[in-house]
Amino acid sequence: MTGRVRTSATAGAMSALHRDGYLVMRDLLTPATCSRIRAELTPLLRPAGRDPFRSRHVRRVYGVLHNTRATDPLIDHPRVLALLDRLLLPNYLLSQLEVTEVSPGAPARPASYDDQRYPLARPRPALSIAALWTLDPGTVLTVWQGSHRWPSRHPTTEGAPLTPPPGSCTLLLGTLWHGRPPQPAPPSLTVTTQYCEPWLRTREAFALSPGRQVARQLSDRIRRMLGYSVHPPDTGLVDGMHPYRLFS
């Protein structure tokens, strides 16, 4: 019976996700777990103003995996993976891991969709899925329900506010238009794990081999070909910075 109930719940979640483009999964983390993760991440937050939106109200953790193990259980949470296994091909990749604290006074984040970095015509299936873990009350998103099915056009109406409760995980298809309204009080800390199709990478992992020491001996052009580059606006960052900083 447990297996049938779980399968039925997964099917229902998939149906809602395909219909709306997003899904709020509640009560995946206990209040005690949220507090523990926040306590481990807070000392790692870097000064505001170093994020891509240049906001003095936003702080981030860079280099998450080599600074803490606090987010590991979120990356491979079984409830999330059960859906990702149906949405993406086997061997899908962790595309981005982001810890963000948004403080009161933060300006609105304009509407966008995560798959914009992939220049392919819409409508089409999502190539990436974002899982936003809410640790604090006060987290607010703006979503355009059903916009994952739109052709290539920007929203022309106001989006709807979405307030995921603490302990929840919100899945966002990479083709869904979403944003963030101005942040009310109090500060809100979230962890975002983003996954992408396994074929969205080079055939050989040149950023791992031949390694940084060999890459230092190569021309700038070859380094860029190996992956020490950023494709606008932000694909290829290392710890939130251009990978060329690795050679400084």
Proportion in β-strands: 15-25%
Which CATH-level-2 architecture of the largest domain?
Answer: Sandwich
The CATH class of the largest domain is Mainly Beta
Rg, Cα atoms, Å? 19 Å
Q: Could you state the oligomeric state of the chains shown?
A: single chain
Q: What is CATH's topology name of the largest domain?
A: Jelly Rolls
CATH superfamily grouping of the largest domain? q2cbj1_9rhob like domain
Output mean pLDDT: 89
Helix coverage percent? 10-25%
Main sheet overview: 6 strands, antiparallel
Number of helices: 6
Structural domains: how many: 2
The number of strands is 10
Encode the helix/strand succession as letters.
Answer: HEHEHHEEEEEEEEHH
Straight-line N-to-C gap? 58 Å
The structural class is alpha+beta
Shape: globular
Residue ranges: pLDDT <50 for 5 or more in a row?
1-5
How would you summarize what this structure contains?
The protein has 248 residues and is of the alpha+beta class.
Tell me about this structure:
This protein is α+β, with helices and mostly antiparallel strands. It has 2 domains: 2-196, Sandwich (Jelly Rolls), CATH 2.60.120.620; 212-247, no CATH class. Helices cover 22% and strands 21% of the residues. The protein has 6 helices and 10 strands, in the order H-E-H-E-H-H-E-E-E-E-E-E-E-E-H-H. It has helices at 2-20, 31-41, 72-75, 78-87, 212-215, 220-226, and strands at 22-25, 58-61, 93-102, 109-112, 128-134, 141-143, 160-162, 169-173, 178-180, 188-196. The radius of gyration is 19 Å and the shape is globular. The chain starts with a helix and ends in a 22-residue tail after the last helix. Mean pLDDT is 89; it is low at 1-5.
